[in-house]
Specification:
about 180 residues; alpha+beta; 3-stranded antiparallel β-sheet; elongated
């Protein structure tokens, strides 16, 4: 396989949750290309399943889309070294108020491979114990419970487009529920 060679990576802007770089790459035919690169510390998400088999979801405003979205609870890692399982448990409690007695890895996704290195480890959480939300100052999150069938319909109707949520719901449906039926 022919190789691509990064000649430089220049920081263009440093943000609160990501850094934007411009890479200079020598492609296999010898030409030089400029590519954008977004560096992200990573994130964790969780599929919280209650005792009735419903998935606890969060509805929140997303500035990039200028609308509310329905998503699984998720958030960025505090540091790149933070264990994603810990981050998933933290986000579950912060956003929904629930804690889980059992948390296990469901699936890992790379959100935008063309220009970003973001990786999200998605966990399944069961044995939920209700508590209270601990939202950040700039968060406003509404919590609701949905069946897998309701969420699958919302995915295929285009109502849920968030990639981590789509991957998580369908992985849960395929990996966990299919084996029980």
């Amino acid at each position: 396989m022919e190789e691509f060679k990064r000649l430089s990576r220049d920081l263009v802007a440093h943000g609160a949750i990501l850094d934007y770089y411009q890479d200079t790459i020598q492609i296999p035919n010898g030409n030089i290309a400029k590519w954008d690169f977004i560096k992200h510390n990573g994130a964790a998400a969780v599929v919280p399943v209650d005792e009735k088999g419903r998935i606890i979801m969060v509805r929140q405003f997303r500035n990039a889309l200028d609308r509310y979205t329905l998503e699984i609870p998720a958030g960025g890692l505090k540091t790149p070294e933070e264990p994603t399982r810990d981050a998933a448990a933290r986000e579950l409690e912060e956003e929904t108020g629930y804690r889980a007695s059992h948390v296990e890895l469901l699936i890992s996704v790379r959100t935008t491979v063309a220009f970003c290195n973001e990786k999200i480890d998605i966990y399944l959480a069961t044995g939920l114990v209700p508590g209270s939300q601990h939202l950040d100052e700039d968060e406003y999150v509404q919590v609701g419970a949905y069946t897998v069938e309701e969420l699958t319909e919302k995915i295929y109707a285009g109502e849920i487009q968030d990639s981590k949520t789509v991957a998580a719901v369908l992985a849960y449906k395929d990996k966990w529920l299919a084996g029980r039926k």
